[in-house]
Amino acid sequence: MPVPDDSAGVADKDKADLKPSYGPGAVSPSPFWKTFLQKMAIAARLAGKEIYRNKLRWFDLRRADYQLGKKAYDSRLPLPGQSQRSDRLDRLQNRIRELGQEVASGPSLKEKSLATLKGAGRAMKIQLLKLRRRRLLRKLGRRIAEEQIADTSLAAETGEVKAASEKLRSVNAEIQTLAAQTYVWARRPLLISAIVLGLTIIFAGIAFEQEVAMPDSSTPKEAAIAFIRALQSNQMRVARALAVGSDTDLAQWKLEGDLDLAVERTNAAMAKKFGSDSGSANTDRNLNTRFESATEKTNGDTARLVDGDDVLAQLRKSDGK
What we know:
Elements: H1 7-17, H2 32-74, H3 83-99, H4 109-147, H5 155-179, H6 189-210, H7 220-232, H8 236-242, H9 247-274, H10 287-292, E1 295-299, E2 302-307, E3 310-316
Antiparallel strand pairs: 1-2, 2-3
Helix pairs in contact: 2-4, 2-5, 3-4, 7-8, 7-9
């Protein structure tokens, strides 16, 4: 009996197994997260290059320019077009020398104090003049390097300026190459980081200012005491959060709280200066004491604080509080 040939079916099955698969289960050859991480790695390298560029620009190159200008000025080289800058440097040097001379002071304490103050003022002027002198020397060195003034005595300093400039150009070229390989918004990572940090500080400050640390208001008396203390400490956000009245009512309570606080401080000052008995007047205006000793009378969602026959405050629940 002949046996059926299943080789054709097996071949068809193998072909079906070799077909590419599509759909949710398929693995993408270039997933988004992989590209994103690669570009962020390039952005991190960009940040490092920018830091190195800033170091070259603000430290190495400026120091090399200063050394070149100082060497040229100290050597009194005849530089074309730099006579005015040399004259300014001479005047600054003479002024620094004059301010550095000691001034004799008198024997009295007042004269010595005045001499000390004048000396501190002269020291500050000397530092400012030195900063101006350093800036002029740096500009002089930069002009010598740009005009490529050849002088054997300046060979070493000129070589340092050229080396720093070449490094700066090389880093700039690397930054341009890396910037083209990442996202547009990530091409200035230091600037983006500074903006994000600044915005974070601003929003954190706003959130901290607007945050209201609510005191204990679990009972009518606690809420009233917290309200009075907020008014006296000028925490109007807390007072407004605890109050349900109008702005006019809040202003009247604020005036009452300020007057009570002023009387309390006056009594404390009088007691300290003239004795404990002299500051005992007007004790009935101490709102904190009266509210703390008041009696609560609750009726549903409303309550009153009573001190003897006086109704100190009427309270009402708002939003369940």
